[in-house]
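W.,

You were right to be curious about this one. When I first looked at the sequence I had no strong expectations either way, so I just let the prediction run and decided to look at it fresh. Below is the sequence, 206 residues in total, followed by the output.
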Amino acid sequence: MKIAGIVAEYDPFHAGHAWMIDEVRRAGFDAAVCVMSPSVVQRGGAACFSADVRTRAALAGGADLVLCLPAPYAVRSAEGFAAAAVAVLGGLGCVEAVAFGAETPDAKALRETAECLVSDEFSRRLQKHLRGAAPFAAAREKAAEECLPGSGALLREPNNILGVEYCKAILTQKLPMRPFPIRRVGAAHGAPLGEDVFASASALRR
């Protein structure tokens, strides 16, 4: 049996999330295991819907199992959030791939960017830019671009950033899983409600 893992908040679970689970099935996976934030989310606030409601929605939308990401990790930065969630999936011992939405659904590019971010060269270049008073995100983009041309642009997109963190977690935890990026479709992250069939979760919360 081929099993894919998905890390999510599902606040709320919407048509785009169901479409992603369907894409996992269409790719040949037999089951989807979701690691979901509890009643607190990465923005540092309370989820709009309880974990019970979101779990039931995910199961109704095609998930086979929903696991909880402990609250102390659910509210961490993208790096801490991704590392903890991947560790939960890795602990199952049966998850073959981590599926996630990305603006750049290129597993090789995301994986190579992750390898760049854990290199000594990147660390040195990052410190140089931080000493120059650049904000962290800008410093990281510049340092990554210097180490691996093209990675700076990739790190400007929110879903790509999280995808790279999943790749980093797989790499640093030495897990036998692979990244499975799926092109993010529908409204852009944070876009207002419009005519797009897949609205953003932030627009639905508003």
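Here's what jumped out at me. The CA atoms of residues 34 and 66 lie 5 Å apart. And, maybe more interesting for your project: Strands lie at 3-8, 31-36, 65-68, 97-102, 178-183.

Coffee later to discuss?

I.
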